[in-house]
Amino acid sequence: MNTPALIREPHMADPDSFYEELIASQHGLSDEQADMALAKLVLILANHIGDRQVLSQALALARSNTLAAKP
Amino acid sequence: MLNTYRYPSFEYRRSAEQASAQTLCHPVVIIGAGPVGLSLALDCAARGLQVVVLDDNNTVSVGSRAVCYAKRTLEIWDRLGLGQKLAQQGIQWQVGKVFFRDEQAYQFDLLPQAQHKMPAMINLQQYHLEEQLVQACQQAPGVDLRWKHRVTDLEQDDSRVTLTVSTPDGPFRMQAKWLIAADGANSDTRRMLGLSFTGQAFEDRFLIADVVMKADFPTERWFWFDPPFHRHQSVLLHKQCDSVWRIDFQLGREADPEEEKRPDKVIPRIQAMLGPEVPFELEWVSVYQFACRRAERFQHGRVLLVGDAAHQVSPFGARGANSGVQDADNLAWKLALVAQGLAPEALLHSYHDERSAAADDNLRQSTRSTDFITPKSRASLRLRNAVLELARSEAFARPLVNSGRLSTPTRYANSPLNTNDAETFTSAIAPGAPCTDAPIEVAGQPAWLLEQLSGFTLLSFGAGAQPVSVAGVQTRVLELGRDLLDPQGLLAQRYDGQPGTVYLIRPDQHVAARWRRFDAQAVQAALGRALALH
Question: In chain B, how many domains are there?
Fold first, then answer.
């Protein structure tokens, strides 16, 4: 059985409309509420994905990509 | 400041009509000699209409303003005889680079489909464009271009619009069967009609600087988010012709526009960006704010709004002038048929239906770009920066980077003029869509499909189609194998043209209907529908 891999190529129809909706979902929230909503979004999507290996790869990518950026 | 361009001064002439004090009724009067008004005048004249264009000034656009013209717009100008000239004069580009802070996030190539007559995009100062359009109008027998004519009042009844016009010789009155407002975002015509113009205003100010430099930068579009030389803001660098470069600096919400325009403020900004060793001179500086808004209706009785007078977008994506010229393309053939009594006035209602849908598409796209470039909250700024950091190594993040989505024509998907497909096609050139160009051969010579399309046309893949006419409007048949050849097979490929396939194409090169086999009755019904007869 193949190890499922994190998808790193574009995989979404109409990315512009997704991004618009993502920003709109923050509308009217305070900065703290917006942080909280994004944290919840991570957990909601993680549960939906479910696959532990994929989640581990995603966590590692988010961390390494952030560390690679100059502060 | 330097001047690479000498502004022409067009001569005011007292019209015979004002001299005789006799009020004439013209078929079409256009207010505003900008890119949209002039394109519309040329198109109307090419379709046999006499038009009068009034402009309150006597020169071309001051400053480079619009700059980017996309393929579809160039195709429209090519139909009007100017496409090749403009494509040669303009700067063609294909590669864009996006920088975040001090690194390149990624680069893209527009990768236009090969084998089209017109390029994907050109950059050209608006004054150069307008000069070409004015010259073409002056040579067109059907266009009467009048400078220093300002409309101060208008009223309309069921049959005409009456204008009060002020010139250096004083006021006079003239009438029009149809009046077209092409007088820009601050349209006086729209104000005189008492129409609202609503939407979203953006608080950020932007500085535009045109600089002249001989530097050997590549002909590419460079966009910076939060660069070290202009922290927390965005910057765009674009090449124009005559060694003039356009630089846009986002200034934020608090900037003082008068202060920011001063050369002692602008020059250090540019020097920091280009590096200390690059010599340049300023040519033009302007500070602006923008808005995304539109009029609710593009038609008010016998007055039609076109271009920025009808809809105003943010500059990201170059959708202002491009969509305005597409308004003109949509309106000219309808005006001509209605004025010539070949179609009912209802045909003009479809101008609003089709072009307001296109305006909404452009407004949506340009608002999305604006929101990405100028995030409005801490969370949206953080998401935007996360996208940019990910884009360096992650392909999935790149489609989310939005520094402007370049103007593409809108398909009139829900137009009342369309006859929807009854059969299956793999080609996306569906009813309402503009025709895609393709290389063909005509009379033994290489040619292009779009050069053949200016009236109602039946494009027939093989024998079988016959001319059809409705209420005096006749379709021309363009038959593959007889009138044109498809040596590379690209025409058949792009249109999914199997033997027997027939496309009914409108005078603006948009598809009205298509079938797998010719049926005179079906074509007649579709033509009637495209003329708003039923």
Answer: 2
